[in-house]
Amino acid sequence: MNLVIDIGNTLVKYAVFENGKIIYDQASESGLFLSKVKELFERYPKIGHAIISSVGKLDHKERDILALFCKVHVLSSASKVPFKNSYATPHTLGVDRLALATAAFYQNPSGNTLVIDAGTCITYEMVNNAGEYMGGAISPGIRMRYRAMHNQTAGLPLLEPEDFIDFIGNATQSCMHSGVINGVACEVDGVIDQYRARFQHLTVILTGGDSHFFAKRLKNTIFANSKFLLEGLNGLLEYNKD
User: Fold this and answer.
1) How far, in Å, CA of 38 to CA of 28, rounded?
2) What is the tens place of the pLDDT at every residue in 91-103?
3) For 39, which DSSP code?
4) What are the pLDDT digits (tens) for 169-185?
5) Contact call for residues 72 and 54 (beta carbons, < 8 A)
6) What is the distance in angstroms between the CA of the first residue and the CA of the last residue of the chain?
7) What does 143-165 look like in DSSP terms, one character per residue?
8) Residue partners of 8: CB distance under 8 A and separation at least 6
9) Where on the phi/psi map is residue 136: left (φ > 0), alpha (ψ -120 to 50), or beta?
10) Is 96 assigned a catalytic role?
11) What pTM was estimated for this model as a whole?
12) Which of 6, 96, 117, 210 is catalytic?
């Protein structure tokens, strides 16, 4: 069994894999790390390997705690990857983006795959049909856009993401919701169109915590997979086992 731990900007996600399949996944606040690890090893004593992915600075205490229970791989730019990495600055490539590219490669090894992750930022990752990670793009996420409008104006309120009926807002709040949610949907559709114009038979994967806000608004055909990052991390753990 493998344990995958994804330390994000707001939450820590835990997933247990057996024979390549997720049998458990849950998210919690970072302050509960020790209790969650103890709970998981009591529940799944056959866990033998773990991988930690952190988009921020990793607290070595967390790694050391986990290492008491099993072998631990801390994902970094030095980790081995199963694809050709053509990113010009691999040492600056986020570990979450490495994991998404890995999942894309394993799911569609002979095809062109674009992965869109709607989280704190919206990232685009392209793996071509030659098994080459080409890079992509990074854009402000939904909540980042709401905060920017509130922080950089005198009168706009701070809103939480919310669905809306018509793209023509008839009040300040509905105008803001349309600007963010509809704006992101149009942006994503436009980016997909750019990639489809260059890459034939393109598979598009949509993932991330905020993807549900605009998935149904996209004109392009996509495949939604909320566990895609976790699957990529498990693939990297398998690839980096001694």
Assistant:
1) 14
2) 999 999 999 999 9
3) H
4) 999 999 999 999 999 99
5) no
6) 15
7) HHHHHHHHHTSSS---------S
8) 55, 96, 119, 120
9) left
10) yes
11) 0.92
12) 96
